[in-house]
Design a protein that fits this description.
164 residues; 2 strands; mainly alpha; two-stranded antiparallel ribbon
Length: 164
Amino acid sequence: MESKAKLAGHPIHPMLIVFPLGLLGGAVLLDLISLVRGPFPNMAVASYWCIFLGVALGVVAAVFGFVDWLAVPRDTRAWRVGLWHGVGNVVVVLLFAGSWLLRRGDDLSHLPNAGALVLSFSGFLLALVTGWLGGELVHRLGVGVDRGAHLDAPSSLSGKPAQT
C-alpha cells in the first residue's frame, strides 16, 4: 500500500524522520561526551538545542506518519505494528521533551541533571526499538512503499519469508 502523504511522488514521513532521529541521537552523543570529559557547557547548550529541534521535527514527522497509518487496514499485522511504532514514538518525544524541560534554567548553560540524562537516554533506547518497528513496516510489510504490500507478513525475527 502506498503512502497517502507524498511530495513529488515520495512518501513524506520517511523523508522527515531522519531529522528528529539524527538530532535526538546527536543530543545523546553530546551528553555522553560531556559525561566522559566532565561538564562541558558548549556541549550542553548544543544538546539542549538538538533536543528542542528534534522534538519539534518529531511532532511534524508524526503528523505524516499518522496520516499514513490511518490508511492501513485495521485487521492486519501492519496496523498493529504501526500502532506500537506510533505510540512508542510519542513516548520518545515526551521523554526528550521532559529532558529538555529539565535542562532549562536561568543561567543559560543548560547543563543536564541526572533526571534529564535518564529521560534522554531512555528516549534514545526506545527510539532504537520504534525505529526497528518502522523498518519492519517499510521493509518487511511494504507499508507506504509497495502497492502489493504484504500487510500480514510474519516478523522478520521469525525467520519466515515475507511472501508466501
